[in-house]
Amino acid sequence: MLEQLRHLSPLDILDILIVAFVFYRVIVWIRGTRAVQLLKGLAVLLLAYFFSRRFGLAATSWLLDKVMTMGLIAVPIIFQPELRRGLEQLGRGRLFTPASRLLGEEDVSRMIQEVVRAVQVLARNKVGALIVLERRTGLKEVEETGIPLDALVSAEFLVNVFVPNTPLHDGATIIRNDRVVAAGCFLPLTENQDLSKDLGTRHRAALGISEQSDCVAIVVSEETGIISVAQEGRLRRHLDEGSLKDLLAGIFKQEATLPFLRWGSSHG
Question: Tens-of-pLDDT digits for all 268 residues of the chain?
């Protein structure tokens, strides 16, 4: 081993670093997306295939071999959204471009405070609202279904967005970092059939987008003024100002990440 290391040339080291960087970027890119769960499933199949061959389980090995063969065809179909997004980012030359800025603790606290203030006003007046806070998983495709904006997050602005009978009232508002980037956006509805019949389209849309990304979706019911939060396909209801603020603060604790390694988290 040491003998091989001694014969490494500068080009060999560069080659290893490039491969390691590519693997790292792929891991960062898929982190927080549905692809992670799919990869875990593939890993389980690979382990089962290895152990079935190792212990001579002929029938199991044959079955898994056929499954793996079909998997080669299924993988591009299953990962089609992620592959398309990755190729688009590569085509835009975003591999080496600077990432969107990472908010400091004060900026995060200010954003949360403004969102909570707005939600309280909307709930008190029973104005329906759907606010989506983007995290690691990009929501560019959802953002493009609405009206593009670029406004600093403030309670007054958010309340005005959801004033009934205005152009931006229907649909979801997307927040990235401390900017309102779009309003009137269309979200995918959840396919969960076990939801209460009392939950309307906003709640189903909030759950739908939370199932497909790691975002946080805040819903204000137009009928009751009840505040709900959807995250990871789960819905928390009957939140008040304190519990909503604590929940968001816990979710948005920022990880210390070097900006030039945040290609997978950048948007533009």
Answer: 566 667 778 888 898 899 998 888 777 766 655 566 677 788 888 899 889 988 888 899 899 888 888 877 877 776 676 676 666 556 645 444 444 455 688 899 999 999 999 999 999 999 999 999 998 777 888 998 999 999 999 999 999 999 998 888 889 999 999 999 999 999 999 988 788 888 899 999 999 999 888 899 999 999 999 999 999 889 999 999 999 999 999 998 754 333 433 434 444 4
30 lies in the same domain as 146: no
Q: Which of 244, 251, 208 is nearest to 115 (CA)?
A: 244
Structure tokens at 185: 């956006």
Does one domain contain both 109 and 83? no
My answer on whether 87 and 114 are in the same domain is no
Write down the pTM of the prediction: 0.64
> In a 10 Å sphere around its CB, with 0-12 CB exposed, 13-18 middle and 19+ buried, how is residue 71 labelled?
middle
Residues 72 and 163 reside in one and the same domain: no
CA distance 208 to 187: 7
Compute the distance between CA of residue 268 and CA of residue 266 in angstroms, rounded to an integer: 7
Instruction: Give residue 130's region: left, alpha or beta (phi > 0; psi -120 to 50).
Output: beta
Q: Find the domain containing 58 and state its range.
A: 2-91
Strand intervals (E) in 135-189 = 147-152, 172-176, 179-185
Where is 15: in which H helix or E strand? helix 10-30
